[in-house]
Amino acid sequence: MIASAFGFADILGTPDVTLDPSRIAAQVVTGIGFLGAGTIIARGSLVRGLTTAASVWSVAAIGLAVGGGLYWAALVATALSLILLVALRPLERHLDRKWRKQTVSALYDEKASSLDAVMETLRKINLHVIELSVEKQAGGMNQVQITFEERGEVVLQNALQALTRLDGVQSATAC
Fold this sequence. Notes:
Blueprint: H1 2-6, H2 9-12, H3 23-39, E1 41-43, E2 46-48, H4 50-67, H5 71-87, H6 89-99, E3 101-109, H7 115-124, E4 129-136, E5 141-149, H8 153-164, E6 169-174
Antiparallel strand pairs: 1-2, 3-5, 3-6, 4-5
Helix pairs in contact: 3-4, 4-5
């Protein structure tokens, strides 16, 4: 915004310039918004690419500031961007580990157990199921893959133990 308002003010007064050069900044904003939106990927409740989109946006803004002669503003913005990206990385890793997805696969006999029983077992141990797929196997068996938000290794082990205790479940493994 500063680059659009003040970065090109000295050019506007020249006799041969009839157009508003700050429109360049408006076109950069449009283009970067388009590119940034393309880096964001949403799958269900998982969104990726926000940091990349924000970084592309800030680099474009810094480039406009340099192009407009606002070197100190560009230097400060660069320093702040780098500090934020480096300082917040450990927090991002911590949150990613805390809330990452985990998939469990179970093979069960559809005559002895049902998908409802499997889901009820997972609900009892407070697992938030994100995705579920069932594949029929030979001999009346079903292979179910359940993806949930992992909240630690203990919860994963509890899920596996609870599934193997169900009647008709032959095996339950973490994928």
